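Example complex used in Figure S2.
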Amino acid sequence: MCYNCRMRVLNTKEIENAVYRLALKACNSLTPDCERAIKDALQLERENLSKFALDNILQNNQIAKTENIPVCQDTGLACVMLEIGQEVFLDGELLEDSINCGVRRAYEDGFFRKSVVDPLTRVNTKDNTPAMIHTEIVSGDKVKITFLPKGFGSENMSAVFMLTPAHGEDGIVDAVVNQVKKAGAKPCPPVYIGVGIGGSFDKCAYLAKKALTRPVGTFSDRSDVKQLELKILDKVNKLDIGVLGFKGKNTAIGVAIETYPTHIAGLPVAVNIQCHCVRLESEVL
Amino acid sequence: MKSLTLPCDLLQLKSLCAGDTLYLSGTVYTARDAAHKKMHELLEDGKPLPFDINNQCIYYVGPCPAPNDKPIGSAGPTSSYRMDKFTPELLDLGLKCIIGKGDRNSDVVNSLVKNNAVYFTALGGLGALYASKITKCEVVAFSELLSEAVYKLEIKDFPVIVAIDSKGKSIY
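Predicted assembly (457 residues):
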């Protein structure tokens, strides 16, 4: 029996081209929701240096858009997340090769920085590949591709904590707030904080990254999780780290939490920090 | 806002206070993680640095490639703490100004005081804005390091904040 006949055929060349388009677009401007959050932060801020920095962040975004150049020189590791409908048959080149081909073309044509090296020899791959690829198989016959160029000033400030059930909600709040405190000015605040709670060691780290694909200013659909997001955001903004470490009310522009069931013995918590340059594009094929 | 042209004299450096915002113009050399490691290895081998560091300024940046019609691509600062290990020996050799972002360790603060040097923070994540303040870019050394090579830049009205002054006072 031929199962393929019930499936939608999608050539991976289309995925390559989508990755190319998304990467070119993502690196050269802040997301509209991030820009809005920065404008809101500027209204709220009272510290002169932090106000000066926020004002310049908005100017920088305008220059990047007008000149069509990257908002930040760290055009990141190419983080590509795919939701692949299980009724899609992927035809053509290997999916991974197609994604990397899209990344390679975009980083060359966009004059983006090639920031990928072998972890030990530190020799640059010269084309910003390989991409960090995450796939989820979902229902339907579409493919959603999300491109997130992830800078490493903030990625270096991320962490996984294997808490225990006894730590509970207070333990989660403390772990996230302390991590942001420890990071100080290094991740270019005001930061967007992705948090993964539950699952396993690896799963919670993925959830934290996935949380960062949510628009800034949105909350979890679960009311208890939304309350936790608000609580962490409030505590973080009382740390007085401020914009780029210049003190004040704006240390974070948002907290996004994703949860997943976990083991009776554990409470994994991952914190993935995103700098104020939130860059993200997605497309459904 | 005040202006300062690099390289500058000792009196000018000593007049700067932590928290001052100012526009820098003049010449700076770029170096980040890989270039610092290479310079450290050269010094260990008793060899000279690829440029005369005396009285100069280093900017911690790994720029994007230059689009056809521009001297340089996006070029904002990178985190300074990763260069802490290599900084005192460069200050001892006459390095007078550093532009980066974020806090430094106590060894660097002490070395800045000892050498009458100043650490500026540029605004992180503002690569497009800083690119528009760079008028010239030429490679000086380690071209194989691509964006991590040492470049000589000419900058004009480049906004920075004095983060640690020559007396060791810090904004962090």
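The CA atoms of residues 133 and 148 of chain B lie 19 Å apart. The first strand of chain B starts at residue 2 and ends at 6.
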